[in-house]
UniProtKB/TrEMBL annotation:
InterPro entries: ECM_Regulatory_Proteins, FN3_dom, FN3_sf, Ig-like_fold. Keywords: Repeat. This is Fibronectin type III domain-containing protein. SUPFAM superfamilies: Fibronectin type III. The keyword Repeat applies. It holds the Pfam family fn3.
Length: 445
C-alpha cells in the first residue's frame, strides 16, 4: 500500500513539472507596440512597426520574429487585404493610387489565441511629383527654376544650393501657384542644383497642413553662360562650327558619329575661339556636335547641341587638269597632261585617275591609270602593287613603290583637289627635282 501511494505522488510531481515547462517551449506571440507609415509617395509607402518601445517612445530592435502585414482601403477586413510576410519590422508597398487613403494592420506570425491584429493605421498617398525640371533666364548671378505639374496641383516648394547641399537641412521656399521661381545672388562660375515638390491641396501659401509629393531633382546647372546661336557648315570631310561667345572666352567641343553619340565619351577638343573646324570626317556621314563653355577647371555650362549634321558627298566626277605647286623644275607626271577622274566613290572615297603621260620612253606615250583611296583623316592610300610608271626627272619610277607617293589630300572646293606627294628616298630618287615634297593640284575642266 505504501508503494502505491509513493508511485502516485511521483506521477503527480512529474505531471506538474511538465505543465510548468510548456510556456518555455511554446513562446507567446510577440505583441506590436506602435506602427506608422513613412517615405510616402504618390504610388508607394513604407509601413513600419515596433515590437516594443523604450521610455522615450523609440522602437527597440526585435529579432527572430516573423510578421504578417495586411493593407487595403479604409474599413477593409484585415483577413482579406493584401498580405505580406516578413522578418523585418517594415515593408515597402507599391502600385498604390495617388492621393488615396489606405489602412494597414500588423501582427506576429503565430497561431495562438492572443495574436490580434494591431491597427488600423491610416495613411494617404501624396500627389505626383513635378516633372521636366529646368532653368531659364540664366545669368552669372541668377536663374529661373521651371517645372511641369505632375497632376492638378497648384502650389509648390523648392530647395536649392551649391551641388551636394544637404537637402534635409536646406531652407524651404514656397513658390505660390507659379510653376517657376527666380533666385538671385548666386555665385558666378559655380555649380548649383535645385529640387521641387508639390503641395497636395488647394492652399498656395506654402505653410498649409497636408501631405506633399516627393521631391523631384536634383536638377543641376552652373552659373556659367552657354554659347549662343551654334551653327554648322559642312564640307566633304570637315565641319565648321560657329557660335556667339555670350561674353565667355573658353569652350569645349565634342563630336562623333550620330549613331549612339554620347558627349561623355565623344572626341573632345578645347578652343579659345568661337569658331572651330572639325576635320578628319567621312563624306555623307551623320555626326553630332556639342559645345559648352568652360568657366573653370571644374565648372562648365550646359551642352549646346547642333543636332545631327551630315557631311557632303564627294562629287568629284569629270575631267581635270593638273599642275605641280612648288616644283618648277620638271613635272612629276612628265609633260602637262589631262587627267580624267574615271570614278569617285562616296563610300570607298576612292579616285581612279587616268591620264596620258609623256614619259621618257622613246616612241611611246602610254595611257596610265592608278587609284587613290582618300581616307577620312585626310591621308591617301595607294596600293603598293600598282605597276604604273611615271616620269621623275628623266627616270621612270613606280607609283606606290617609287620616288613619289601620294600621302595626303585636301578638298579645296567643289572643283579642286590638292594631293601631296613625298619623295621616298629609299627608292630611286628624282634627280632633277630639288624638293622632297610636291603638291599636285587637280582642277575640274
Amino acid at each position: 500500500m505504501k508503494k502505491v501511494v509513493l508511485l502516485l505522488l511521483i506521477g503527480i510531481v512529474f505531471s506538474c513539472s511538465d505543465d510548468v515547462q510548456i510556456p518555455e517551449i511554446i513562446q507567446p506571440c510577440q505583441p506590436v507596440a506602435a506602427s506608422f507609415a513613412s517615405d510616402i509617395t504618390d504610388n508607394s509607402a513604407r509601413l513600419n512597426w515596433c515590437g516594443s518601445v523604450n521610455d522615450a517612445g523609440e522602437c527597440l530592435p526585435v529579432t527572430s520574429v516573423s510578421w504578417v502585414v495586411t493593407y487595403g482601403s479604409p474599413g477593409f477586413d484585415p483577413e482579406t487585404g493584401t498580405i505580406i510576410t516578413t522578418t523585418q519590422t517594415n515593408a515597402t508597398i507599391s502600385g498604390l493610387s495617388s492621393e488615396t487613403s489606405y489602412e494597414f494592420y500588423v501582427k506576429s506570425d503565430c497561431n495562438l489565441a492572443n495574436n490580434d491584429w494591431f491597427g488600423p493605421l491610416l495613411f494617404r498617398t501624396s500627389c505626383p511629383a513635378p516633372t521636366n525640371l529646368g532653368i531659364a533666364n540664366l545669368t552669372k548671378t541668377s536663374a529661373t527654376f521651371t517645372w511641369t505639374p505632375g497632376g492638378s496641383e497648384v502650389s509648390w516648394e523648392i530647395k536649392y544650393g551649391l551641388q551636394g547641399f544637404n537637402l534635409e537641412e536646406a531652407e524651404l521656399f514656397a513658390t505660390g501657384n507659379s510653376t517657376e521661381h527666380s533666385v538671385m545672388n548666386l555665385q558666378p562660375n559655380n555649380d548649383y542644383e535645385f529640387y521641387v515638390r508639390a503641395n497636395c491641396n488647394s492652399f498656395t501659401d506654402g505653410g498649409q497642413a497636408g501631405s506633399s509629393s516627393a521631391f523631384s531633382g536634383p536638377f543641376r546647372f552652373a552659373t556659367c553662360l552657354p554659347p549662343l546661336n551654334l551653327t554648322t557648315t559642312p564640307t566633304q570631310n570637315s565641319m565648321i562650327l560657329d557660335w556667339d561667345s555670350n561674353g565667355e572666352t573658353s569652350w569645349e567641343v565634342r563630336y562623333g558619329p550620330a549613331a549612339g553619340f554620347d558627349p561623355n565619351t565623344a572626341t573632345a577638343a578645347t578652343t579659345n575661339n568661337s569658331t572651330f573646324t572639325v576635320t578628319g570626317l567621312c563624306p555623307i556621314t551623320a555626326y553630332s556636335f556639342v559645345v559648352r563653355t568652360a568657366c573653370s577647371a571644374t565648372t562648365s555650362s550646359a551642352w549646346v547641341s547642333a543636332g545631327n549634321i551630315s557631311t557632303l558627298q564627294l562629287g568629284y566626277t569629270g575631267m581635270y587638269t593638273y599642275e605641280e605647286i612648288g616644283n618648277t623644275d620638271e613635272p612629276i607626271f612628265g609633260d602637262p597632261a589631262t587627267v580624267e577622274i574615271v570614278s569617285v566613290s562616296d563610300t570607298e572615297r576612292s579616285i581612279i585617275v587616268k591620264y596620258l603621260a609623256n614619259l621618257d620612253i622613246p616612241g611611246t606615250q602610254p595611257t596610265m591609270t592608278f587609284n587613290f583611296t582618300l581616307n577620312c583623316d585626310g591621308t591617301v592610300s595607294v596600293a603598293n602593287d600598282q605597276d604604273t610608271n611615271f616620269n621623275c626627272g628623266g627616270a621612270n619610277v613606280l607609283l606606290g613603290l617609287g620616288a613619289a607617293t601620294p600621302t595626303s589630300y585636301n578638298m579645296v572646293d567643289d572643283d579642286t583637289i590638292d594631293i601631296r606627294f613625298v619623295e621616298d628616298t629609299a627608292s630611286e630618287t628624282c634627280v632633277n627635282v630639288p624638293l622632297t615634297e610636291v603638291l599636285i593640284r587637280l582642277t575640274k575642266i
